[in-house]
UniProtKB/TrEMBL annotation:
Underlying gene: Plaa
InterPro entries referenced in this protein's UniProt entry, alphabetically: ARM-like (IPR011989), ARM-type_fold (IPR016024), PFU (IPR015155), PFU_sf (IPR038122), PUL_dom (IPR013535), WD40/YVTN_repeat-like_dom_sf (IPR015943), WD40_repeat_dom_sf (IPR036322), WD40_rpt (IPR001680)
Name of this protein: Phospholipase A-2-activating protein
Superkingdom: Eukaryota
Repeat keyword on record: yes
Purpose: Plays a role in protein ubiquitination, sorting and degradation through its association with VCP. Involved in ubiquitin-mediated membrane proteins trafficking to late endosomes in an ESCRT-dependent manner, and hence plays a role in synaptic vesicle recycling. May play a role in macroautophagy, regulating for instance the clearance of damaged lysosomes. Plays a role in cerebellar Purkinje cell development.
Keywords, ordered alphabetically: Cytoplasm, Developmental protein, Neurogenesis, Nucleus, Repeat, Synapse, WD repeat
CDD domains from the UniProt entry: WD40
Family: Belongs to the WD repeat PLAP family.
Species in which this protein is naturally found: Nyctibius grandis
Length: 744
């Protein structure tokens, strides 16, 4: 049997299905799964044997129009709601936000953790572990399709009628022109760089060695989608509801009758000249049937003839050495385009694109022209661009004027979007922001460096890796995992109260009148410090906390000693209850997040991170930080950009404390965010202590959770951390790393 037969009809959507993708076989589903995205905002997952969905993925707020599957059961979806989502089995792990318009195309790259999205905002974005790494700009209209060439290169096609080849670094390597209208779909041949495209110009085009090697016309206006099968056959789906398969193989070629039927269908197709698929047409100027006696010069070349007032289109087939009729051109008298949209040429829209034959050799050039253009200037530019004799200037200008007679400037009807039928979507532009590295924060005055005591690495030789206390012996004979899952939060408690107070008093001297603290205020803060640093048995009072709140609202350049007092006091249950309670927690979080600004002072960044870490000591603090997790993590990760190792250690500790909480509640979305942060921060930190804490966080997150293990693998975390397994110093780093790798 040369063809395909229908095996199943699957249904589960309440409206049209806009994309389909295969999820490769796994232990659980040895025959793989089928995912479909629909206009009902849902994704249905089917087994091969059942007509009803195995499960339905809900979460998008508009049509799901693109799907791509990756390793370890991950699925990436793109939607008209301008977001992409990463799914693992039946759960949404991450939402990729950043595009300003519908996401028409998504692809998971071979290198783990890398994903691509193409959007109606004309850009393509590269995501790593859920964060946008890079934006590719160059297309002049909606990006409609993506295809992967290798780990380093990919292709994109767009409504601007061009295909682009990109390097993952952001560079556009090549632009391919050939289509005369929107390109909807692109697919690559196995094991090579050749590819196929389909679009709104009724054609399937086959590209080899960077050139359009063959054009196959179809008897339908829109060729929505194409895919290349493993055997090299090409499958296309068209707007007439038919799927057609094209092959190079003689064994699989259709019967003579089927081929004849296809040709008849093609020859009966009516081609609307307004689409510009065949350039501009003036029936009176066309040659008659005798024109078809001359052979064509290249495959896919089109020729129009006037057969007793009826315009017919033919295409040259090199393999068969004959002209094949591809349709009748309807309504082609006078060549006006008043009713149509525009003609696309090299990705731009024009009112006309003329084909100018220069001489008998059959060489022809395209001349694009808009009614608003000056015919003389257009003619001059055309001759310049194509290196033609300037003597032709009058002739070309006259040709333009003769062929655009009576055309007045009218607001031409826009193309309607082929998917929605709605008017053309004109997306807004997206703006990129840049962050500059922070300036050196420490004031030359005074020698107090915030938290300097806590920067020491725990002494070697069996001391607890966090606190430096307690001895555990790691005998080489049986190395047991003492690192994770970690059960309690890690805090920053070391302090020198006298130094902190000295600095506070010194800076108070330079504070403005409205911020200045009285002698009494300073005594109140001293008492708070001794109460929370366990040097006195008194409980912190409301008055002390009010004074502290005034101090932490000091200007940024002098606030750090007050922040240090906050960092130490928040470990005390009374203080924590006060700041993290339902009543005041909003201001408290806003205050700390304000200091996590990449342009801010490093001392403040460090102390704000440490204060957040210390909040995990109390129930109230844990509850608040878990509720605000998304915002805190999003802000905190910006602190990775500096090169201050203490800030990196604090950031790693915050992530670890989140991992401890998430391990208890098993919130997979939270774990996904945490894994993304670990993966992102792991790329930039160098400090062994920070890396160690990130490894413990990773181990804690994936312990006893197969979903989290799968997700970590799909993000490529294992390849990221491998190098630490062979580090000799500190020993805890390589030991912990090996335990994590065993889980993965």
């Amino acid at each position: 049997n040369r063809g395909f037969t229908e095996m199943h009809c699957m249904s589960g959507h309440s409206n049209f299905v806009s994309c389909v993708c295969i999820i490769p076989p796994s232990d659980l589903y040895p025959r793989g799964l089928i995912a479909t995205g629909g206009n009902d905002h849902n994704i249905c997952i089917f087994t091969v044997d059942s007509s009803a969905p195995l499960y339905v993925l809900k979460g998008h707020k508009n049509t799901v129009c693109s799907l791509s599957s990756g390793k370890f059961g991950t699925l990436l979806s793109g939607s008209w709601d301008a977001t992409a989502k990463v799914w693992l089995n039946d759960r949404c792990m991450m939402t990729l936000q950043g595009h300003t318009a519908a996401i028409w195309a998504v692809k998971i790259l071979p290198e783990q953790g890398l994903m691509l999205t193409g959007s109606a905002d004309k850009t393509i974005k590269l995501w790593k572990a859920g964060r946008c790494e890079r934006t590719f700009t160059g297309h002049e209209d909606c990006v409609r399709g993506l295809a992967i060439l290798s780990e380093m290169e990919f292709l994109s096609c767009a409504n601007d009628a061009s295909v682009r080849r990109w390097h993952i670094s952001g560079e556009c390597l090549q632009v391919y022109y050939g289509h005369t209208n929107y390109i909807y779909s692109i697919s690559v041949f196995p094991q090579c760089k050749d590819f196929v495209t389909t679009g709104e110009d009724r054609s399937l085009r086959i590209w080899k060695k960077g050139e359009c090697a063959q054009t196959i016309r179809l008897p339908a206006q829109s060729v929505w989608c194409c895919c290349v099968l493993d055997n090299g056959d090409i499958v296309v789906g068209t707007s007439d509801g038919i799927i057609r398969v094209f092959t190079e193989s003689l064994e699989r070629t259709a019967s003579a009758e089927e081929i004849q039927a296809f040709e008849n269908e093609l020859s009966q197709a009516s081609i609307d000249p307004k689409t510009g698929d065949l350039g501009d047409i003036n029936a009176h100027d066309l040659p008659g049937r005798e024109h078809l006696k001359d052979p064509g010069t290249r495959d896919g070349q089109t020729r129009l003839i006037n057969d007793n007032g009826k315009v017919e289109a033919y295409q040259w087939s090199v393999s068969e050495g004959r002209w094949i009729k591809i349709g009748d051109v309807v309504g082609s008298s006078g060549a006006t385009q008043q009713t149509s949209g525009k003609v696309l040429f090299e990705g731009k829209e024009y009112d006309y694109v003329f084909t100018i034959d220069v001489n008998e050799s059959g060489l022809s050039y395209k001349l694009p022209y808009n009614i608003t253009d000056d015919p003389w200037l257009t003619a001059y530019n055309f001759l310049q661009k194509n290196d033609l004799n300037p003597m032709f200037l009058d002739q070309v200008a006259k040709f333009i004027m003769d062929n655009t007679k009576g055309q007045t400037l009218s607001t031409s009807a826009q193309f309607s979007d082929p998917f929605t039928g709605a008017g053309r979507y004109v997306p807004g532009s997206s703006s990129g922001s840049s962050t500059t590295p922070a300036a050196d924060p420490f004031t030359g005055a005074g020698r107090y460096v915030p938290g300097s005591a806590s920067n020491t690495v725990a002494p070697a030789g069996g001391a607890d890796p966090y606190t430096g206390k307690g001895a555990y012996q790691s005998a080489e004979a049986k190395v047991e995992n003492i690192y994770f899952p970690k059960k309690d939060a890690v805090t920053f408690g070391q302090a020198n109260p006298a130094q902190i107070l000295g600095k506070l008093k010194e800076l108070n001297g330079s504070a403005t009148e409205e911020h200045k603290l009285t002698e009494d205020d300073l005594i109140v803060l001293e008492k708070l410090l001794s109460a929370t640093c366990k040097t006195s048995a008194e409980k912190p009072t409301a008055q002390q906390l009010q004074t502290l709140w005034r101090a932490v609202n000091w200007p940024e350049d002098i606030v750090f000693p007050a922040l240090d007092i906050l960092r130490l006091s928040v470990r005390h249950p009374t203080v924590s209850e006060n700041f993290c309670s339902e009543k005041d927690h909003v201001q408290f979080i806003i205050l700390l997040l304000k200091f996590l600004n990449p342009k801010g002072k490093q001392a403040n960044q460090l102390l704000a991170l440490r204060a957040l870490c210390n909040c995990f000591v109390s129930e109230a603090g844990q509850k608040l930080l878990m509720e605000q997790r998304d915002e805190i993590m999003t802000q905190a990760i910006e602190m990775k950009s500096g090169n201050n190792k203490n800030i990196h250690i604090a950031l790693a500790t915050l992530t670890l404390n989140y991992a401890v909480c998430l391990h208890k509640v098993n919130n997979i979305e939270g774990k996904a965010q945490c894994l993304s942060v670990i993966s992102t921060v792991m790329e930039v930190v160098q400090d062994p202590e920070a890396i160690f804490r990130l490894l413990v966080a990773l181990g804690t997150l994936i312990s006893d959770d197969t979903n989290a293990v799968q997700l970590a693998k799909s993000l490529g975390v294992d390849s990221q951390i491998k190098k630490y397994a062979s580090v000799s110093e500190p020993a805890k780093l390589s030991e912990c790393c090996r335990f994590v790798l065993n889980l993965l």
